[in-house]
Amino acid sequence: MPETNFTFRVEDDLKDRFVGAAQTNDLSASMLLREFMQNYVEKTEHDAWFRQEVEQGLVEAASPEVKLISHEDVVARVRASF
Fold it and tell me: Biological process GO annotation list (predicted)?
């Protein structure tokens, strides 16, 4: 996959501490930042997917064709299956 540069400003002290912490763990600062970015994007995409699924479920549950089952009935059915 092609790569590109990503430049941003950060305080000198934070940069030095971050690079030092990365080196302590035998990692590069760029590797850690790349991993953080990937995790953040994946989390954001998953959250968007999950919210969409919940919204769809709520719409489906609000349909008059849906037969609702009370909590007590669910508990009784589960207990009866054991």
Answer: regulation of DNA-templated transcription
pLDDT digits (tens, 9 = 90+) for 3-53: 999 999 999 999 999 999 999 999 999 999 999 999 999 999 999 999 999
State the amino acid at position 46 in one-letter form.
H
What is the value of pTM for the model shown?
Answer: 0.72
Distances (CA, A) of 82 to 16, 74, 77, 78: 61, 13, 9, 7
Whole-number Å distance between alpha carbons of 53 and 56: 5
CB 19 within 8 A of CB 29: yes
Those residues with Cβ within 8 angstroms of residue 28's Cβ, 6 or more apart along the chain or in another chain: 22
